[in-house]
Amino acid sequence: MTAALSFQHVFEPGSEPPLLLLHGTGGDEHDLLPVGRLLAPGRALLSPRGQVLERGAPRFFRRLAEGVFDEVDIRRRAADLAAFVGEARAAYGLSAPVAVGFSNGANMAAALLLLHPDVLAGAVLLRAMVPLDEPGSGPLDGRPVLILSGAMDPIVPEANAQQLARQLEEAGARVRHEILPGGHNLGQQDVTRAAAWLGGLP
Q1: Residue 184 annotated among the catalytic residues of the structure
Q2: Residue 80 contacts residue 5 (beta carbons within 8 Å)
Q3: From the candidates 9, 31, 47, 153, which is the catalytic residue?
Q4: Are the CB atoms for 136 and 117 separated by under 8 Å?
């Protein structure tokens, strides 16, 4: 049963640690459930819907233009999402989740890591870019992070994804950054690499 919490969401019971699924622009709480099931069969899944609407499309935070983020809004929305994760952990009896975020959801997962380092046990960031010019400095205490970028991504420049990897490393995360063939959309290689990485976590 899904509890009434501060974010509209779906919860699927399963094994620990749970996956926190964060959709991209225009997605919703159902969007990444099939991906979560593929990445970690039998794992508990917690999937909230972003609370910002951009021309009717749900997002996790506001942007001022393509690739230009409202950093004040990011900080506020990250605090709201961190509070929701705490509510969900209490309601469902969960340990700290590993985030799996795509695009806007990956950027929000990165912001959570940098601003609220105790909320997540780790993260898979799919097509992520730098969410904050001046983020917090951890400590992330060796939390594992996988960043999967697209070599031909028209939205996320390679240098930007590399800067995000550096920010997370400087905050204390254990980062693995891979650049895969393809663009901004996800492909089978993303699923294969992310599933193997998740399967290797303690």
Answers
A1: yes
A2: no
A3: 153
A4: yes
pLDDT tens-digit profile of 12-60?
Answer: 999 999 999 999 999 999 999 999 999 999 999 999 999 999 999 999 9
Q: What is the mean pLDDT of the chain?
A: 95
Its pTM surpasses 0.90: yes
Query: Residue-wise over 35-72: b if at least 16 C-beta within 10 A, else e?
Result: bbeebbeebbbbbbbbbbeeeeebbbbbbeeeeebebe
Residue 116 catalytic? no
57-59 and 63-65 strand pairing: unpaired
Q: Which of 103, 149, 177, 190 is catalytic?
A: 103
Q: HEC profile for 21-52?
A: EECCCCCCCCCCHHHHHHHCCCEEEEEECCCE
Q: Are 97 and 19 in contact (CB under 8 A)?
A: yes
- When the candidates are 3.20.20.70, 3.40.50.1820, 3.40.1010.10, 3.30.70.360, the CATH number that belongs to 9-199 is 3.40.50.1820
